[in-house]
Amino acid sequence: MTSLGIQTKNPDQWVAGLDIGSTMVKAVLYNGNEYRKAMSPAGWDPNKIATDLLFLLCCRSNLHKIPKVTAATGYGRHSMDKAVLSPTEISCHAKGASFLIPGCRFVIDIGGQDAKAIRLSEDGGFKDFVMNDKCAAGTGRFLSAMAQALSVPVDKLSTYAEAATPHRINAMCTVFAESEVISLINQGVSRHAIIAGLHASIARRTASMAASLHPEPPVVFTGGVSQNHDIAIKIGEEMGFPVIVPDDSIYTGALGAALLAWDWKRENREK
Ligand code: ADP
To answer: Which atom of ligand 1 is nearest to the CA of 89?
Structure first.
């Protein structure tokens, strides 16, 4: 279809995946060949934010309407009225990570509100998982709170920490860690050493959670916190082998949802 000279695409040839997270909403469009992506901050009306984001992504991708087959995952997945399926974050991260890094055997996902480790079978299927969703320790929320206490943007934490010797941080509870960080600043400990110490404690905590599943490489690191290069390096050091961070690591869940929507579309067309 053309309009104003713009070539529009047939939305029936695409599916959509949404990851409605605690901090960010991520959307992916997929057509069996290529994917498009967009994200926006989460808010009090997840259905509206996700619908608006998907609509914006469709416009940018020259689709004149939202694809009929949409899968939603994440904390807000049940609030999305356009979703025909609502897979768990575990299945979406497993699916998305295997797509981005074929042969992946283990996934570590650290998002805004929880941290998960997922073990995959040789064929990329789900085998087992462990999850910390009981407290903010070691999650993106913890990292963002520390970044605020240190007056460093969350996306600059890695740069601060990379060449620094970590200063030991004992508290992992967000409230106590914040007090400890403020007290270290007052004692004259450099922000670089404090941030490196916070990263080291997140890495230790993550690796010890993952250890119960006996991880083996290749390990893929996903979720917003995976964008912190220093944390990725430190988790690799704690686990004993490097972790791989794919380019679109924050979109892994939304991409996995889109891939599951694609499978669903094919199965339902073939019936
Ligand atoms: P959710 O799905 O729960 O919304 P995400 O996987 O989208 O979580 O991750 C959001 C978290 O990622 C934020 O809490 C923030 O701390 C962290 N984050 C975002 N960007 C970066 C970055 N560049 N470096 C490190 N952490 C980041």
So the answer is: 2
